[in-house]
Amino acid sequence: MTLAVQFTQVSRQFGDVKAVDRVSIDIQDGEFFSMLGPSGSGKTTCLRLIAGFEQPSAGSIRIHGEEATGLAPYQRDVNTVFQDYALFPHMNVRDNVAYGLKVKGVAKAERIQRANEALEMVALGGYGERKPVQLSGGQRQRVALARALVNRPRVLLLDEPLGALDLKLREQMQGELKKLQRQLGITFIFVTHDQTEALSMSDRVAVFNKGRIEQVDTPRNLYMKPATTFVAEFVGTSNVIRGELARELSGYPQPFSIRPEHVRFADGPLASGEIEVHGLLHDIQYQGSATRYELKLANGQTLNLSQANTQWLDNTTQHQTGQPLSVRWAREAMVTLHDTVSGEV
Amino acid sequence: MNTLAITRTPAPGSPLRRFSNLLYRRPNLYLSMLLVPPLLWFGAIYLGSLLTLLWQGFYTFDDFTMAVTPDLTLANFTALFQPSNFDIIVRTLSMAIAVSIASAIVAFPIAYYMARYTRGKTKAFFYIAVMLPMWASYIVKAYAWTLLLAKGGVAQWFVQHLGLGPVLQFVLGIPGVGGSTLSTSHLGRFLVFVYIWLPFMILPIQASLERLPPSLLQASADLGARPRQTLMQVILPLSVPGIAAGSIFTFSLTLGDFIVPQLVGPPGYFVGSMVYAQQGAIGNMPMAAAFTLVPIVLIAIYLSIVKRLGAFDAL
Amino acid sequence: MHSDSQDRASWGLRIAAWGGLVFLHFPILIIFLYAFNTEDAAFSFPPKGLTLKWFSVAFSRPDVLEAIKLSLQIAAIATLIAMVLGTLASAALYRRDFFGKQGISLMLILPIALPGIITGIALLATFKTLGIEPGMFTIVVGHATFCVVIVYNNVIARLRRTSHSLIEASMDLGADGWQTFRYIILPNLGSALLAGGMLAFALSFDEIIVTTFTAGHERTLPLWLLNQLSRPRDVPVTNVVAMLVMMVTMLPILGAYYLTRGGESVAGSGGK
């Protein structure tokens, strides 16, 4: 299987700032690949390197096996959906979508037909004559998508395309994007800072931090087996136990992670392979589908416990803040963490 | 979706495309292609001229033969400090300062009203109403004032009908301000200058007031300040950069003018009219060149002062 | 900075503001009024009667017509040069940082920041040194020099407001630099360029201080007007021409305003 995009030791420096620092990634053809990280972590720069808006300071980028370094954006078989959509304000929707075909010299009749088809695909069939300002945010987002897809790129880059949409629309678009990607079978590279978005849509996710990749894995592994403290804390919520307590509980000096939903209230005798700790109940947060209990352990560390509210009747009232509590978890639910994967900060 | 067949660009090898590729790979080449024409024009024509002028300030002018010889001398620059020339400089400078102060006083209420009490259509109306006189022909505005101030003209008509004749006579009698008539007085010249440069003062002040967040004024009121206190303690200090920016124009434009002093006011040279007379009627280009150094130096000093007041951020 | 509806401007402030506007426009109205004055020599006020006859007198005078023609030609050529140089400079300066950038933008502003008399006499000194005979060519050179910054300011403001991702989107969709300029940058710049050109035209048409030094024996319309002021016999014709010059300089400002208004929103950005 060929690689859609391959980064080999790619760096991008802006002055003294290393936006991307010796990153290597292999993105498979036909994969829904997400780049996840906080702002300034280098994920957007990586996307711009693939698009050709930036050139690497060092390293090599191959797109479908072809060396892309030095190629202008218009020489790459890659299209981008921009964060601000970047629709051309002086063109109507159809001309926006047909623009890529026009500059490549496709005949007028054909490009209008293909633009219309692309608009149908994103359910904007009747909107060709409108100007971008006459559309809602969600509609602009679809036009931007159609404009990129009409060129039939082998790789589609999406730069936080759902960031400006409200929650409901966003969830709907997540589903549609995923469906579209399966249908077209092309590679989607999706940049986001929203971990739920990345987990729910992607085949694989790369977690970025300070210009480096902390972990590349499937959503399930990312959540269940975070490699580093950063991943454990950035993807979902996690209790990261460090220091003396970690050694005492796990037997290893490294910190470890235990998810709040894997912690439960102590009941009955302690089973083998289970760990129990004691603390004072510090706070109770009712969150709708679950309730979170915050425990203060003897050494001052906080431990969170999350309990799904599966009963119709709310059981929050059974506990009171300030009361002593014992909680347990299975030893295999603990994941030992590294500080960073590369061993260098 | 399947109908969207892949069309690959047939690797376009047109000269334009190859040129575009070259510029993409060589951003510095692209930048210099953009920069070379304006740089050539400004470097060769404009800066070159300024240096030529400065250089000619060192040439020698022979009073008897009325000829310029390229013998270098400092005489022209030292001559600037002769009492007669120094008077011209002081006269021009005090007019520039007076005009700047008066413009700021007249402009502030207009700018303040525009920024704080107008919105939408009214704001647009005020904006255009200030822009129009600013751009309207300079020479025609100056001419209009010669009509206004002339004997039997509009100003006189108003003064008579409002019964202000004695007041005007008194003001014109003050030495250093007045003159025999309005159109030959310092006061008349001052009025024309204030009129012509006023819009250049209004717009920067308005822009600086416009940038004040409304929450700032609400906070001041919330903390118990009366409107007058808010004006003096909050708004006025924060509009200083705008006033300073506007004064750059009023100061610099007054300093170099030679048309208005020629049309309105008492006889006696301004720096501008001196430059004009030296190079024109007298043919003493070296002295004219030396005189142009006066506004340049004064403006440089002035800029260094207003820069501290934040004028450059308000431009 | 907007007021709440309950706090209103005091009477003093309102009178000062509206009075200021009247002060700014009164002399202009006087010019319009005097152009129709029946008397032929006086500045007297109020006018005794109104007539259109001075218009036909003015437009049958060859010196007036020649001055108009010369001024229009000069303004057109100077504007064209300023549009090319101003656009190039703004394209070079708007985004990239490089050594000397501050110096270049200062140099562009200098011709209007320094009094015109300095530009004028400096050019004259140079033309004399180089043995160039002053005339239309030298006037155009002077005018183009101070008009560049007008175009530059308008175009760079539009470029800064235009989201850079539009240019990236165009290249991303397969357009090379030239196609991007032709299909994306130019249409988005169009009205700003036009507005800058109109302002430059107005500025050139009216300019007198630099022109005084660079004109030689040529007589532009403002120079003709200045010369007229020492000839009281011609007052009615002068008044008509003054009104004409006033209009030629004021109309572009209205046009430019309508072309560039509503510039608050960033072109091409999809956010709210």
Describe the structure.
- Chain B: This is Spermidine/putrescine ABC transporter permease.
- The complex is a heterotrimer of chains A (345), B (315) and C (272).
- By secondary structure, chain A is an alpha+beta fold.
- Chain A is built from nine helices and 18 strands.
- In chain A, a hairpin with a 2-residue loop joins strand 4 and strand 5.
- Chain A starts with a strand and ends in a 9-residue tail after the last strand.
- Chain B is mainly α.
- Chain C has one domain: Orthogonal Bundle (MetI-like fold), CATH 1.10.3720.
- Chain C contains eleven helices and no strands.
- In chain C, helix 2 packs across helix 11 and helix 3 packs across helix 6.
- Chains in contact: A-B, A-C, B-C.
- Chains B and C meet through helix 1, helix 2, helix 4, helix 5 and helix 6 of B and helix 1, helix 3, helix 4, helix 5 and helix 6 of C.
Brief sketch in words of this structure:
The complex is a heterotrimer of chains A (345), B (315) and C (272). Chain A is 27% helix and 32% strand.
User: What's the average pLDDT of chain B?
Assistant: 85
CATH domain fold name of chain B: MetI-like fold
The H-and-E topology of chain B, N to C, reads as HHEEHHHHHHHHHHHHH
Name of the CATH architecture of chain C: Orthogonal Bundle
Shape of chain B: globular
Helix run count of chain B: 15
Q: How much helical structure, as a percent, in the residues of chain B?
A: over 70%
CATH H-level superfamily title of chain B: MetI-like
Residue share in helices of chain C?
over 70%
For the biggest β-sheet of chain B, the strand order reads 1-2
The CATH architecture assignment of chain B turns out to be Orthogonal Bundle
State the name of the first-level CATH class of chain C: Mainly Alpha
Radius of gyration of chain B: 27 Å
Give me the Rg of chain C, rounded.
23 Å
